[in-house]
Specification:
Layout (H helix, E strand, L loop, with lengths): L1 H8 L7 E5 L17 H11 L3 E4 L4 H5 L8 E5 L1 E3 L12 E3 L3 H7 L4 E8 L4 H21 L3 E7 L16 H13 L4 E4 L8 H8 L4 E4 L6 H13 L4 E4 L1 H4 L4 H14 L3 H12 L1
Parallel strand pairs: 1-2, 1-10, 2-3, 3-6, 6-7, 7-8, 8-9, 9-10
Antiparallel strand pairs: 4-5
Helix pairs in contact: 2-10, 4-5, 6-7, 8-10, 8-11, 10-11
Length: about 280
């Protein structure tokens, strides 16, 4: 039963989770590797900071799972790879999942697997590929009791000025894609924050009984990140999945401790900021 694994992901007191995404190297973009060049050091830092989970790929998961002892973050396993983040975009786009991803997750003792559901304007074949992956993974996930985290990702046309990895924070688009993730049988949903953060209750409502963990996206300053975190939690989010805002932070352990305090102890933004400063001393 998938709930057995979810019990290791969510804090038993707060019912919330912090999953640190360190799987960016999977996508073949040089800018994504910033902060995670030395994965041995990254994992050592994260294990010391002890978030609820770390999101990794098949090739890197052993760095976490080889760490002895009970008190370490759980593993969330990334299952798919795509080339939709480049600037300019490649002429040929793809998205593929590991055919044996669920079995790999079981062997690696993961608590969940993560798969994309991407809306990229003008490229419906990518969403179709994601839906096919989700349906295939869901069949195996049910068989092995592995929770399936679907990541609805609404993107802007990368041909627009600015290029690169551009997330569309439009509330209606996010709500629609989150609902599709729910309909496809997600056990967890990893969704972007809305541009208007006060709209996030709409995302929570449309997800129904499926826990929503909020993505961090690109780097922002600490106060903005913490204020947004508090806002989405107040509207019913079950946790956060932050990557670059932790692994590219000058003090990854400090920001992790601050976020954990917000999630699990109800710390205020100012209290959390003070924790980051104190950890630098």
């Amino acid at each position: 039963m998938s709930q057995f694994r979810l019990n290791r992901l969510f804090n038993s007191v707060s019912g919330r989770a912090l999953d640190v995404a360190a799987d960016h190297g999977f996508f073949g973009e040089s800018s994504f590797i910033s902060g995670i060049e030395d994965m041995d050091a990254v994992i050592a830092t994260l294990v010391g900071a002890n978030p609820d989970a770390v999101q990794l790929t098949v090739g890197q998961a052993k760095l976490l799972q080889n760490v002895p002892g009970k008190q370490k973050p759980a593993l969330v396993l990334r299952t798919d790879v795509a080339n939709v983040y480049g600037s300019p975009l490649d002429e040929y786009l793809f998205s593929h999942h590991f055919p044996t991803a669920i079995e790999e997750a079981v062997r690696l003792d993961a608590v969940a697997v993560c798969v994309n559901l991407i809306h990229l304007p003008g490229r419906p074949e990518i969403r179709e590929a994601n839906i096919r992956s989700i349906m295939a993974l869901r069949d195996d996930a049910r068989r092995f009791g592995m929770p399936l985290m679907i990541e609805p990702l609404v993107m802007k046309d990368n041909g627009q000025k600015g290029g690169g990895y551009m997330v569309d924070g439009d509330t209606d688009k996010i709500v629609t894609l989150v609902r599709q993730a729910k309909e496809l049988g997600a056990d967890l949903i990893k969704a972007d924050p809305t541009d208007n953060v006060s709209d996030y209750s709409k995302v929570i409502t449309v997800a129904g009984d499926v826990p929503v963990l909020v993505r961090g996206g690109g780097r922002v300053d600490d106060r903005t990140l913490l204020e947004r975190t508090v806002a989405v939690l107040e509207q019913g989010a079950s946790g956060i999945v932050y990557g670059r805002n932790i692994v590219q932070h000058p003090n990854p352990a400090g920001i992790t401790a601050a976020l954990m305090a917000v999630l699990h102890r109800g710390a205020s933004v100012d209290e959390a900021l003070a924790m980051i400063e104190e950890s630098r001393l």
